[in-house]
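User: Just a sanity check before I run the rest of the batch. Below are the structure tokens for the first item. I only need the designed sequence back.
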């Protein structure tokens, strides 16, 4: 079971612009003593920007630094990321950082938004530039709705990705809601991706949505944590996000086993109604999971530990 360690950070007007949300924590081990947590915050409703905090690697509740500005400006009018930039995965490549992010653009009343995946690159871990103004996970004939919130795994020069892929928009209680499963993609360089439209994990029914996978290998098994919700009452209601789990021996086939996720909402407090957007790293002889609680991160981010046996 995961051992919850508590809240790390909550947006409350820091630097005059972080007015709400510390959403989708995305973690990079900056050095042996420091973790850099990229996250999305909102200067105003409906607009997300990405920044970061530095925390102690030994106790992530100890915040060492709060960055004072967004790491990337919004995209140009008409581009896929003109209304929102939310981090999803960070990979260190030859002393550079590849930060994969979800770009948002507002849509119509029938489909309120569109979101696809962008890539920003940094030489110092603080200032980033776009690799391209177009998304690197994008709309295809098999995936016309969305391709976003990815996790990228780089092993022996090969890249694999698992990401949230839109399957439909449906009306619930007079409001259009998005459904999505987890697809898989591959790449040779982390920039150009092949999207075959194959689901790594499918939804249990046509009202479920799966998103924000995180994958880590322990010994000879790959472990995936992700979050899932329903579509009828998911904004802090009965259908709100919970964390699911799947495992695989060779990355080709995943076995879903949510009962083994090892973490759920608390009885009270900041993560008592919702638990979402996990990101797992290995730290010495334990795993650390960073995640959001109520309100999709409106009440902040926290973390939990999973002790490993001597491995």
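Assistant: Here's the designed sequence for the first item:
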């Amino acid at each position: 079971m995961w051992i919850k360690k508590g809240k790390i950070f909550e947006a409350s007007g820091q630097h005059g612009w972080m007015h709400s949300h510390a959403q989708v924590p995305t973690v990079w081990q900056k050095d042996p003593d420091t973790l850099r947590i990229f996250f999305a915050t909102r200067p105003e409703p409906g607009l997300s920007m990405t920044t970061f905090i530095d925390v102690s690697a030994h106790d992530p509740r100890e915040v060492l630094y709060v960055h004072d500005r967004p790491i990337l400006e919004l995209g140009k009018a008409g581009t896929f990321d003109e209304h929102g930039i939310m981090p999803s995965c960070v990979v260190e490549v030859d002393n550079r950082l590849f930060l994969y992010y979800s770009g948002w653009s507002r849509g119509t009343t029938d489909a309120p938004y569109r979101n696809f995946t962008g890539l920003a690159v940094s030489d110092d871990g603080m200032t980033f530039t776009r690799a391209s103004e177009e998304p690197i996970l994008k709309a295809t004939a098999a995936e016309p709705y969305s391709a976003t919130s990815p996790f990228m795994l780089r092993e022996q020069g090969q890249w694999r990705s698992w990401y949230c892929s839109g399957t439909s928009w449906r009306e619930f209680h007079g409001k259009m809601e998005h459904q999505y499963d987890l697809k898989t993609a591959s790449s040779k360089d982390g920039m150009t991706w092949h999207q075959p439209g194959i689901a790594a994990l499918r939804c249990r029914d046509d009202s479920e949505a799966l998103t924000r996978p995180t994958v880590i290998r322990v010994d000879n098994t790959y472990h995936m944590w992700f979050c899932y919700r329903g579509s009828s009452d998911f904004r802090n209601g009965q259908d709100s996000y919970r964390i699911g789990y799947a495992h695989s021996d060779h990355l080709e086939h995943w076995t879903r086993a949510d009962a083994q996720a090892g973490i759920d909402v608390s009885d009270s407090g900041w993560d008592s109604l919702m638990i979402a957007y996990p990101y797992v790293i290995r730290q010495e002889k334990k795993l650390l999971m960073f995640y959001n609680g109520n309100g999709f991160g409106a009440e902040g981010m926290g973390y939990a530990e999973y002790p490993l046996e001597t491995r």
